[in-house]
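Pipeline run #58 for the internal structure catalog. This entry was flagged by the ingest filter as a single-chain record with no existing model, so it goes straight to prediction. Upstream metadata was stripped on purpose; only the residue string is passed forward. Reviewer on rotation: M.T. Logging verbosity set to normal.
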Amino acid sequence: MPVFEILCVTMQQSSFSKIQEMNIHSNVVFANQADRTELSEQEFEGHRARMITTTTRGVGKNRNIALLYAEGDICLLADDDVVYSHDMEERILAEFAAHPDADIMVFHLESSEPTRVFQNVPKTKKLHFWNRAPTSAVRIAFRLSSIRKANLWFTPLFGGGCPFPSGEDSMWIHAARKKGLRIYISNQTIGTVFYESSSWFNGYNEKFFYGKGAYHRAVHPHSCWLWRQYVLLRFRGIGSLPKKERKKWFSNGMDGYDRLLSYNEYVQGQIQ
């Protein structure tokens, strides 16, 4: 029987209360962003919980910390705003057993926010290169051996607490596809994500399109101009920012990525 483990990024925790809050009944590693450095451990229900507390900021960096401490054969990425189904571990292990060639499996989550729902598939299927890759790290489970063989890590440049606001999970999946890892999309629902507030999304404003420009410059360095047109079409009619301004801030994001300037640094540079 494979060993299963959750790798959860969290902040300012002083106890293991998230185990109950998230309905966890599995081994778990918490990468805890706080103002101290500490390693603590607890046993519960025959499982092992570890809390790696550091002053390291940035969601990608902390996912990497969790990966460094990971010991499970099958691991699930997590944020602390997810509440899992009681049989989540069994569902995930059953899917990997049914698809022994799968390196990565993307699961379905219910959402507390009607405008931020995940599309479910009627049947578990393999992700081909022509398919649009699903996003959100909290849906991703994987064979740890596959990830380590591929030397696959999260970028420290994108995501909450990083220079560029989002996209670290999409970049991770993109890198996995380029390395030839086999990815499946599962029809199994493993829990619910409860959105309360976002550390990066405040509407379809200048910062949003700046982040999109930086992301596509990083992922598609030679075709980012074409992706700019795609983004402008995809978000057409959403928000109040004029098309000319969206186009400008997408381009500013491309420039900002080349210079490794966050949105605030870029704006400050324009003011000076």
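catalog note: The first strand starts at residue 4 and ends at 11.
catalog note: The chain has two domains: 4-193, 206-271.
status: ready for reviewer M.T.
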